[in-house]
């Protein structure tokens, strides 16, 4: 049987080896051209990372592909190819909510590729500060979860910052219950980020009702603490389990099997038109009858679709709010530009957070 198996596999492996030789030669040629692009960008002081261009490259290849590779496979492969090319030009840094092993770190790697240099931060505030101060070119922050809604601190910080949104990623959230031993023997407490505790509350009530629940700054911090204390269980993802060497008591314990968190990438550079964009903004209106309707009317009249609407207390005055709105299209698109111009004339306050490629 082994001889028959090898006789069939050997010629196929030889074909793969030959194709790999062609691929590595072509990839090096591509990298050499990317370096030439980098020199041109350097001459004109243009940014190394252009998310709209990378999205266009991936979308074009997905349309060209006839299989068997799926769109997700093509996206993953070319994101790493382009990340490696960027790293030849310059090592880019991205700040994220740490420590190592958080979903924010995972979102950073999935968006920028493994060639990005991560800068773990103790809080979302510090992520913003790091990018503003130049310690990192980009930041990765969560803005909303499909089960628990908006991440309030991120939204509040967007009011104060000069940074803009340059991209987004919707990350599936798979929570695991982790301990040093891989069992619940001797465990009395479960640690996690407050949102993770909320996202797993029904599972915990049904399967671990005696465990005291304690909120910490991140799920990765919970995993780090669990390493040194066998009485602690942590809720965290696969990345944290691997990094901290914890055993999985139970996997996929989130109450919503389709749980996702939306992350946005922040930086100092505006993102150009990709053809598949959205624009995020913050507005406030005078506290008077019909004010909100008047504010939204220009969007409808110019055919601009609103995909998200979130209100937050303004914390000044009484019953006054800021509205966080996402609309389809780029701020440079004619219809969006016209609608935003009218919004600016009617709103008490308007801040455009950025136009960027939508998560596909």
TrEMBL record:
Residues 280-357 form the ACT domain. It catalyses: prephenate + H(+) = 3-phenylpyruvate + CO2 + H2O; chorismate = prephenate. The keyword Phosphoprotein does not apply. Its EC number is 4.2.1.51, 5.4.99.5. GO terms for molecular function: chorismate mutase activity; prephenate dehydratase activity. Gene3D superfamilies: 3.30.70.260, Chorismate mutase, Periplasmic binding protein-like II. Residues 93-268 form the Prephenate dehydratase domain. NCBIfam families: CM_P2, PRK11898.1. This is Bifunctional chorismate mutase/prephenate dehydratase. It comes from Caballeronia sordidicola.
